[in-house]
From TrEMBL:
Function text: Mediates the uptake of pyruvate into mitochondria.
Keyword terms of this UniProt record: Membrane, Mitochondrion, Mitochondrion inner membrane, Transmembrane, Transmembrane helix, Transport
Family, per entry: Belongs to the mitochondrial pyruvate carrier (MPC) (TC 2.A.105) family.
GO cellular component, one term: mitochondrial inner membrane
Membrane topology (UniProt): Multi-pass membrane protein
UniProt-annotated location(s): Mitochondrion inner membrane
Protein name: Mitochondrial pyruvate carrier
One Pfam match: MPC
Organism whose genome encodes this protein: Friedmanniomyces endolithicus
GO biological process, any: pyruvate import into mitochondria
């Protein structure tokens, strides 16, 4: 069977209106919005990020996932700023942000586990440190004033 573009061949020169017709692809689905036509493969980045849920956290890149998170947040906001609002693109970018945030949380949790601390232990340690600072300020407020004047 001949390639469809090859079959167009000489007929296109005899019938110029054939050249002006849009070529329809059977592999991609187009979505009509107020802003125009959007191709469905924009979900590809989201699906690629979501497929990383199957990978162990030790193999994930925190910078890549933070970039996904930032990109999703920025473009979601932009989709609501432009006129007309593009809700389809906003939903894609919001899910991109969500996937990036979830993966970043996984990586950070994994890195904490390497240190031997759980999230609860880290929170307790931070609260103890803050309590010690507050206690110091309450007992010796002049030390805080001196520290501020010294800077």
């Amino acid at each position: 069977m001949a390639n469809p573009t090859m079959r167009l061949g000489l007929r296109a020169f005899r019938q110029p209106q054939l050249l002006r017709q849009p070529v329809r692809s059977t592999q991609r689905r187009n979505v009509q919005t107020a802003a125009g036509t959007i191709e469905a493969p924009v979900w590809g980045v989201v699906l690629a990020g979501a497929s990383d849920f199957l990978r162990p956290a030790s193999q994930l890149s925190i910078t890549q996932n933070m970039a996904l998170m930032a990109t999703g947040a920025i473009w979601t906001r932009w989709c609501f700023v432009i006129k007309p609002r593009n809700l389809f693109l906003a939903s894609v970018n919001f899910l991109l942000f969500s996937v990036g945030a979830a993966q970043t949380a996984r990586v950070l949790s994994y890195q904490r586990s390497l240190k031997g601390e759980t999230m609860g232990e880290e929170i307790k340690d931070e609260l103890k440190r803050e309590a010690g600072l507050v206690e110091k300020v309450v007992k010796h407020p002049e030390s805080v004033i001196e520290a501020v004047k010294g800077k």
